[in-house]
Amino acid sequence: MSSISGIEKRNATSGIRGRTANLAGIRDALGRWLMFSDYGAVAQRHMAVVWSCVLGYAIVDVIWLQGSRLSFAQANWAIILKCLACSAFAGIFLAVASSRLAGDERRPAVLLRYVLHLTELLWRTFLPIGALLVGGVTLSYLITAADLPLRDNVLADVDHLFGFDWPSFLQATNASPFIVKVLAKAYDATGPASDLVVMWLVLRRRGDRITEFMAVLSLSTVAVCIGMALVPAAGAFAYFQPAPQEFANYSAVVGPMWPFVHTFLILRDGTLSVIDLTAPDGIVSFPSFHTMLGLMTIYAARDTRWLMIPVAVVNGTMFLATMPVGGHHLADVLAGAALTTGAILLVRLQNRSTPAREQDAERTGA
Known about the structure:
Distance between the termini: 52 Å
Helix content: over 70%
Oligomer: single chain
Number of helices: 16
Order of helices and strands: HHEHHHHHHHHHHEHHHH
Strand content: under 5%
Shape: globular
Radius of gyration: 25 Å
């Protein structure tokens, strides 16, 4: 009986150890995929900011949707579930493949491990950025649908304080087809430039810089939503309503000008009642998110001069383009630049509390 009892105890103990090991493995994998575990203390604090913003978006969106006339399209859930399923599959595949190649020092195996590592880092970067965009876009639609009193007159007054007249600037730039093309190209290049910088950080395996970029992005998107709620605005185009001949050259290059205004207006009057993330429209006027994204992209590329200089030139030109091409007030641009600068300074405070030696180790995920 005693031997049987001993066997049962050993089996129970081994079962508990097995479950503990499984839970530890799951916790380690989750921490890695949420980018908490392999880039050091600073990156952990950055990701705590990112996931806190994502959680905040989720809570506010769910609560607000309950009392809003807007509904969340069923197609959105299909996209979200598909992304989660793909991420889970990618995680399992990458883990199994890396395990099979572990310890193999032949050149093909080393190259494959490098590619797998880059692929995993790219997926781990995509997850929080995608979550931020889903939460932020949903909240921006909810804020717009609240139909708060517009403050474009206040923004126009701020422009005048700086000696800036939006209709005159539109007419002056529209007079030169060359300037129109340059501004339009720069405005469209904002997203690709950001993608390029993130891909470069992935290729360099700079997880520390990626988490920093995402922390700045998360704080900036929250600032956008707060700005939208405090200073609702339809934009300079809707406020000044320029005649078609005043932006004819822009129309010839860009096509229909300021199409987001239509979505903005039908959200406010209740014509649009569904949030469809399969075809979202940028509806933010104040502050300028183009300006915010451009500035944080320049900052993220600061360690690579050959990349930062052209990105700075393109995005610097884009800052001007946001007014005629994006239909922003100058005040929108200034507010966007100020808010993102503030987000960068807040994130940098987290970096200062970590010794330089530890930060050097974190750059490689050591």
